[in-house]
Amino acid sequence: MSTVHVVDHPLIQHKLTLMRQKNCGTKDFRQLLEEISMLMGYEVTRELPLKEIEIETPMAKCKSKVIAGKKLGVVPILRAGLGMVDGILNLVPAAKVGHIGLYRDPETHLPVEYYCKLPKDVAERDLIVVDPMLATGGSSVAAINFIKQRGCKSITLMCLVGCPEGVRAVQEAHPDVDIYIAAIDEYLNENKYIVPGLGDAGDRLYGTK
Ligand code: PRP
Ligand code: URA
Fold it and tell me: Of 76, 81, 108, 133, which has fewest CB within 10 angstroms of its CB?
């Protein structure tokens, strides 16, 4: 079974509280999501393997560490996942970015795919799939399915707010995928929205409602 990391650093909790409030406008919501994504990205990348290389400082030659191994990729689930990309790219500017377009059918609440474009060498990369909301888990499970179909074996899911149902759904479908999340809220309402949550992340990010 995969590990669920609740990233509850005080700065993240503080910024998330600001985002949750219904009077937090689009500009602040967008900025806070990017800031939290950077802070969470710091934790998600904590276990990256290192290797030693020889360098020369102004004082002496020495061995020093750099990140080794596979390259990183970030895969936002459109639309709201886009708001988490720059936070990670601030930390890992060379990461490639793939996009998966999914929306939840308002009646069935099931994910509907409309776009998928991933880096060519996706199978050789460590991927971080990003989406602020993990509600039923349907969107994240479907996105990870697409990525696995392209041969990628190293996937981490990074979300902002989830609920027990969503976490369980991802763990059951993808027991090899670790989850990083800032908060696991109480429950899903009858429209499959997270309560207390923060409402519709895409609409709040882009001001579409
Ligand atoms: C939201 C959110 C997730 C999904 C979560 O996207 O960004 O992708 O719902 O719900 P689930 O876990 O039940 O699948 P939405 O479908 O509203 O699309 P949008 O980002 O384009 O608004
Ligand atoms: N999508 C959202 O944006 N918010 C929720 O609470 C559930 C799904």
Answer: 108
Beta-strand relationship, 111-117 and 4-6: unpaired
| pLDDT of 166 above 80 | yes
pTM of this prediction exceeds 0.85: yes
The tokens describing 62, both together, are 């020495």
What residue type is assigned to position 175 of the chain? P
Assigned token pair, 131: 């989406």
Alpha helices in 22-173 (DSSP H): 26-44, 85-91, 138-149, 164-173
207: tokens are 């001001």
Looking up tokens 């990010």 gives 205
What is the CA(133)–ligand 1 centre distance, in A? 6
Place of tokens 């910024």: 15
Q: Which atom of ligand 2 is nearest to the CA of 132?
A: 3
